[in-house]
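Encode chain A's predicted structure.
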Amino acid sequence: MKPIELFVLFGSGYVCGLSIGSGFVLQAIKKLFVSRWSNLREALWVATSGFHAILCGWMAVMFVGLVVVSDQPHRADFWYRMVVYAIGVGGGMAFVFVCVHLVNTGMRVHRASLPETLSTSAPGRSRT
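Encoded structure for chain A:
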């Protein structure tokens, strides 16, 4: 394979991994604001998240068809191309999970530094 093919395969896999894992980032961000949400906002969030999951799953399948297989479905280097693509997907998802961990850790540290009156979501309940 040529270096440009490796770059395109890994890059498209990386973008796909980022998009697949971005739902976890959205969930981590949601935890910041969940105490102020109404039932309507929660329903809209569920609908948007469902659409997001369907779109990202579809994108992964289309990228495999477009980038890995392209116009030669019986090519001899299919598995080599698929491995490079899969490494890109894994790299993108690993980056997303590290970001989610940092967001969650930052939220705990931030909450611990707030005064008690600001760190409670409702009277008598603490945000843990």
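The mean pLDDT is 77.
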